Amino acid sequence: MDQKIKVFMEEVRARNPHEKEFLQAVHEVAEAVIPYIAEHKLYNGRNILLRLAEPERAITFRVPWVDDTGEIRVNRGYRIQMSSVIGPYKGGLRFHPTVNMSILKFLAFEQVFKNSLTTLPMGGGKGGSDFDPKGKSDREVMRFCHSFMTELYRHIGPNTDVPAGDIGVGAREVGFLFGMYRKISNEFTGVLTGKGLSWGGSLIRPESTGYGTVYFAQNMFKLKGDSFKGKVVTISGSGNVAQYATEKANELGAKVVTLSDSSGTLYDKDGINSEKLAYVMHLKNVKRGRISEYLEKYPTAEFFSGKTPWHIPCDVALPCATQNELHGKDAATLIENGCICVSEGANMPSTPKAMNAFVNAKILYAPGKASNAGGVAVSGLEMAQNSMRYSWSREDVDEKLQGIMNQIHDSCIEHGTDPDGYINYVRGANIAGFVKVADAVLAQGVV
Ligand SMILES: NC(=O)C1=CN([C@@H]2O[C@H](COP(=O)(O)OP(=O)(O)OC[C@H]3O[C@@H](n4cnc5c(N)ncnc54)[C@H](O)[C@@H]3O)[C@@H](O)[C@H]2O)C=CC1
Ligand SMILES: O=C(O)CCC(=O)C(=O)O
After folding, report:
1. Where along this sequence does the record place binding of substrate (predicted)?
2. Cα–Cα distances in Å, from 126 out to 109, 154, 190, 324?
């Protein structure tokens, strides 16, 4: 089997030689799915995974814009349309200086399997730009978003490709992007999700990724007769996903003691309660400051400059910042310190060594494509509400989100249970995500 995986990866590597993150994401899926294909004749000899590892379309484009000093700036825009076999391309836009083809292709590839897991009819895509919103004025961000959309609009549409937010793209950016799309297409359609409530957005979409990550962990605990009550939780990041994971973990009786950003980790041993979280939300979403500024208001907290949260002892770790932010040695430290559950809010935050360490230690470990699927799931519900020209209540959407997270958890159990009863959620998520897409690929022929 190792030989089959090696041969497959050689072919993918030959075509994408320098795309480290993309190759990492493909390898993780191949390790689970190639043995499964070998045991299921229906999928044998059809090169399904090879086809899924090649984007249907990868678009790059120039994004010129004018900064506040009048200087003309240029960034690169991207949209990777990975697979539309089970529905329109769906996935976020990331604005961050590290954005490149490898990162967006890994994200688009993950998105195909994640969206399949949600049970909703959505294909996979991802896009973005190397534009850095940090330190830019609202007007600069608006001019950039408008320019970005004047090219992107010709490649997307409510039945073709429906982008949303990701790192660096939140409610403000989605607003500017939607405004330009509406103007140049002369249509008001659900072409983006994560929209404002008064113009087609869904209740619970801002909360959904963070809440979903906690709901997934709650499911893992439930199976063991355990819960979040009294657990100490470390969270990385302090953006959208981290904020709402904190809110839900607090609500379930846990104590969240860390948040972070690219400058370091905030540690508040007394817990980041709802009052302190409101301060963080203002700091990050309105003031757009650094997490270290928390200490100006709550001076008993500590700040570890340049460090991630994983050295702080905890029962539960929720990585909610970015890819490869949790290394093998961090996983070893977490396990040594008694961590019993890791649920990923970010996409591929654990390196392969860290993933193996969690699985080998047989702790509860959920990979992002399962545990963070709540965000795109509620995006799918936003699309459904837009099509109906109707809005569901907060309770309705939250109940549907919980139902979807439960179903994803059940699919992982179905495909990931080891003979000794341990649930390998990595294998479970990859196989369950693959089966639905593979069946559609077979039904539709070589296209
Ligand atoms: N927003 C959504 O609905 C979804 C987001 N995700 C993933 O969740 C993660 C966080 O995304 P959001 O919270 O939406 O973005 P955001 O832009 O609101 O927040 C990103 C956070 O990550 C931190 N961060 C970014 N790069 C970092 C680095 N190199 N080192 C340390 N910290 C870093 C930022 O400081 C910030 O706190 C990403 O991996 C994203 O792909 C996954 C599913 C859905
Ligand atoms: O809501 C969406 O369409 C995208 C969410 C996303 O980017 C993700 O799941 O990583």
Report:
1. 90, 111, 114, 165, 379
2. 9, 16, 17, 18
